[in-house]
Amino acid sequence: MKNEKVSVIICAAGKGERAGFGKNKLLAPLFGAPALYHTLKKFNIPEADEVVVTSSKEDYKEISALCSPFGYKAVRGGKTRTESVKKALKEISGDIVLIHDGARPFVQKSVILACIESVKKFGSGVAAVKFTDTAVYGRLGEITERLDRDSLFRVQTPQGFLTEDIRRAYELSGGNVYSDDSAVYGDFIAPPRLIEGSEENVKLTYKSDFKSEIPAISCGEFTRAGFGADVHAFGEGNFITLAGKRIDCDKSLIAHSDGDVIFHAVMDAYLSAAGLKDIGHYFPDTSPEFAGADSGKLLEKVIEIVKKAGYIGGNVSVSVQAEKPRLAPHIDEMVNNLSRICGLPKNNCAIAAGTCERLGFVGEGLGIAAYAVVTLNKECK
Ligand code: CTP
Ligand code: MG
């Protein structure tokens, strides 16, 4: 089969009881956005032709709103994950389907692509990781049997199948409840094919999983710092954009892009920490492509470039100097934007704002200046 259509089902219809937020854990904040947002974003790739997201009745409005910018469809789930998937399978039209837990926002693109490839070659592809601890059976606090660690795996999602096979398996499963899709497929179709998942691809289960200060596994000893600065002059206009936040002002900032001095300083700090060239090299201001550009989108690209170079973000610290407008009421929203785009916890992102006491070009109200320091860690391979 060539050019098979790939559908994705993202399971988000649970209650998240073990996390104890008093609401679905997937709507609790993670890096400045609902946890589910990060999972949805991971499937916004050309290889996924259609995405359907299961939701409970209570969360339907909120989950539909999260889906809408991506063009995904929210559908009502059931009482159990098994029921939710069974319902969602009726809503998709792909030849191949990837089923993924909304609670796994750290899934890597390479794992998603490996699942699709495995379905094309072998009819199924289920992400799993090998056991590293010694594994045993136990009862009443005693070890009753030692297990062969080399043939044990922890099964994750995504799990990919040919749609007609997994639909048939779920039909044959009757009212039984399963903890994942590979079990249903294994019972009624064939032994599922395993592909290599990743340790990073954890399932958010308890509240403590949301508090992790380090978004990915890092080898802390290779921390590097980078510094970035930017200035834009005021010109005619009635608003400015700072850290992605539109702020009313009696002037605008003159720039080829949207003039977001904070994001520009942060981008240079990221690139500098990774030992790369500055933003002018990646996004030349002579290029019409970047005229009026949304600097948030450019920062997303910089984060990708830095990630490709093998680094993950540690923290971002920004200082912005402006005689006007008053920035204090906007700082929280600006920090939220920074945290969401950089994929860092909010308390790893800080923005301080001040005036220049009427001294110099900032003090005379001629423009705005921003300075940023970023730390990066070398990613463990
Ligand atoms: N899920 C679902 N429909 C259900 C139950 C769960 O779509 N009726 C989804 C969850 O939203 C989650 C995934 O299946 O993304 C894996 O389930 P789990 O981690 O157990 O989440 P919850 O069931 O929400 O959490 P808990 O078991 O702690 O209540
Ligand atoms: Mg559950």
Detailed description of the structure:
The chain is α/β, with parallel strands linked by helices. It has 11 helices and 18 strands. The strands form 5 sheets. A 7-stranded mixed β-sheet has the order 5-4-1-6-10-7-11, with helices on both faces. A 5-stranded mixed β-sheet has the order 15-12-18-16-17. It has a two-stranded antiparallel sheet with strand order 2-3. Strand 13 (239-242) and strand 14 (245-248) form a beta hairpin. It starts with 5 loop residues before the first strand and ends with a strand. Residues 213-221 have low confidence and may be disordered. The protein binds cytidine-5'-triphosphate and magnesium ion (MG). Cytidine-5'-triphosphate binds at residues 11-18, 26, 54, 77-81, 84, 101-103, 203, 205.
